[in-house]
Amino acid sequence: MSVTTRTLIEYGQEQAEARKKRRKRIDNPSAWFGGGIKGVEIVLAQAKELYPDLDLKPDSVRTWTKRGLIPKPWVKSLGKKKGTQSFYPLDTPRQLATAAHLQAQGYKQREIAEAREAFLSGASERGDPCLEAYGRVYRQILD
Predict the structure, then answer these.
(1) Following DSSP, what letter does each residue of 87-115 receive, concatenated?
(2) Residue of 140, 122, 109 whose CA lies nearest to 130
(3) Which SS3 state, helix, strand or coil, does residue 117 take?
(4) Could you tell me whether strands 37-38 and 74-77 are parallel, antiparallel, or unpaired per DSSP bridges?
(5) pLDDT digits (tens, 9 = 90+) for 92-139
(6) What angle do CA 13, 14, 19 make, to 5 degrees?
């Protein structure tokens, strides 16, 4: 099989198209989170419905995100000088309510964050009181 200029040009055009497809941005958070919850305020309002004793400000929710008590959002830029928009996973209000309930019971935020990671990774709940409590409260909030 001989290589001709025509086949090289066709090959180059195919590769250029393939590169365009790979570089395409994903602007739709539904591809990541199945829709996502738009903004901290909505997450906080939904968490208050699940756990009425919840008393947090949006800045505290952002701090809890940094500490690992709830999942990190997907952040989308709205353009030049227009800011950003955050999209949280659909189960974030449930995780937030669970963390607030455990904190009210006296667990430290570090313990709650470790229990959350272990619970979501599927670790055994036996032996760790914080992990057992996290699993129990997480399931109760679902009902």
Answers:
(1) EE-TTHHHHHHHHHHHHHTT--HHHHHHH
(2) 109
(3) helix
(4) unpaired
(5) 899 999 999 999 999 999 999 999 888 888 877 788 888 888 888 888
(6) 95
